[in-house]
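Per your request, structure below.
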């Protein structure tokens, strides 16, 4: 009798473990760290069987303490653990709570093959203390499409009617897939605004017919060299600042770019001076 009871308890234990494992798979097949076994994140999109393509929309719910100032970071890693994209999950409600709070995020990336990867959700941890760290990892399949979307940054007299010089705003462009996505985004910037964008208040401070002579990105630093048309007859500190911000923000949309160095004909000193 005792043996039967023991076997029954063992079966119940393993059944509970299987159910718990299934529940964890339902919320994203995650491998979480430091959660203490408690459900803290529920991912509703993407689905576990979905091939991820750019731009990737992410939706779900997270406990309020995952947020700081209403956000927390999300990363997409390739099969080797290399960072492909970084995005910010934004709370869609009051995050000052211990309850679940809905969030949304979007990741843009340029990937040229279908492969396995990992979607990493990180609890925002401004303290930097290990005991406050949390993360949830979801194995995913990363795919690609024929076209990708990039952003070009322009001035806008509706969003910034006083023209603050250092305020620029993105427009989205769809372009053919390319390995040189940062250069392609800059090319879109140099094309200037479309009629539709101008009707929405967008305009550019950059001269027409500017040419990119070279662009390299290494160790988080983008070095871009233009021809002399970039600063031809450009005067005034405000316009100079606007041009610089348009170029820098267009390049900084990519997670691999933290700093931008602008040069003309190989010279970076005294460039874009009023």
């Amino acid at each position: 009798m005792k043996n039967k009871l023991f076997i029954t308890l063992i079966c119940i234990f393993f059944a509970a473990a299987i159910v718990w494992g299934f529940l964890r798979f339902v919320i994203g097949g995650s491998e979480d760290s430091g959660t203490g076994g408690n459900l803290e994140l529920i991912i509703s999109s993407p689905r576990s069987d979905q091939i991820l393509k750019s731009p990737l929309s992410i939706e779900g719910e997270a406990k309020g303490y995952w947020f700081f100032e209403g956000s927390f970071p999300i990363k997409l890693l390739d099969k080797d653990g290399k960072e492909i994209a970084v995005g910010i999950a934004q709370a869609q409600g009051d995050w000052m709570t211990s309850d679940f709070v809905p969030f949304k995020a979007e990741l843009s990336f340029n990937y040229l093959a279908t492969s396995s990867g990992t979607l990493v959700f990180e609890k925002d941890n401004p303290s930097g203390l290990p005991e406050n760290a949390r993360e949830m990892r979801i194995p995913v399949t990363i795919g690609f499409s024929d076209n990708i979307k990039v952003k070009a940054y322009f001035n806008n007299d509706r969003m910034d009617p006083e023209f603050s010089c250092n305020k620029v705003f993105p427009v989205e462009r769809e372009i053919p897939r390319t390995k040189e996505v940062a250069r392609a985004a800059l090319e879109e910037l140099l094309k200037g605004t479309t009629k539709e964008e101008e009707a929405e208040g967008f305009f550019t401070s950059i001269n027409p017919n500017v040419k990119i002579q070279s662009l390299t990105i290494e160790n988080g630093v983008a070095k871009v060299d233009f021809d002399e048309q970039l600063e031809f007859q450009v005067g005034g500190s405000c316009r100079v600042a606007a041009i610089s911000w348009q170029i820098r923000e267009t390049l900084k949309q990519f997670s691999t770019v933290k700093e931008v160095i602008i040069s003309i004909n190989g010279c970076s000193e005294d460039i874009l001076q009023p």
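The radius of gyration is 24 Å.

Regards,
D.
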